[in-house]
From TrEMBL:
GO terms for molecular function: acetyl-CoA carboxylase activity. This is Biotin carboxyl carrier protein of acetyl-CoA carboxylase. The keyword Lipid biosynthesis applies. It comes from Helicovermis profundi. Gene3D superfamilies: 2.40.50.100.
Amino acid sequence: MNNNDIKELMTHMVNCNLKNFEYSNNGITLKIENYDIYENQFDNKLSKKIKVKEFDESLNDVNDNSNTTKETRNNFEAVKSPIVGVLYESPSPDKDAFVKLGDIVKKGDVVCIVEAMKVMNEITAEFDMKIIEKNAKNEDLLEYGQIIFTVERV
C-alpha cells in the first residue's frame, strides 16, 4: 500500500461517512479515524449578537432613507456563519437571492444557505432585521464565525 492508495482510501472514507478503518497485512497495521469536527455545530441559526466596531462611510449610501448617526451604527449586528462551508445566496442558480441590500427580513426567514459536506444548511433570521451590508459573495468559502451580513434590528 503506497501513499496514493492511502489518500484514495481517506477520500472514500469521507465520501461514505466512515468513522474509522483498520487494515492489517504482513504484520503492518494501518488505522485511520475520521473525526467529525463539526459534530453538533449545525445550528442553522444566526450566531450570537455581536457589536460591529468599524464601518465604511459608504454605508450612508445604503441608508439614504434614514438619518444614520454614529450611535445607530454602533447598534448594527452581524450574521455570522455557524460552520465552514460555501455560501449560496439563492436556493438554486436560476432563482433570486434570498435577501438584497435594504431588505427587511422577518424572524425565521431564510437569509442564505451554507453548504458543508454536501449538506445544505439554511441560515435563518433570529429576529426581524434590515440587511445593511453583504460581507460575503455568492459561492465564497466561509470560515466558522465569518461575518456574512451586517444587519440592524427592526
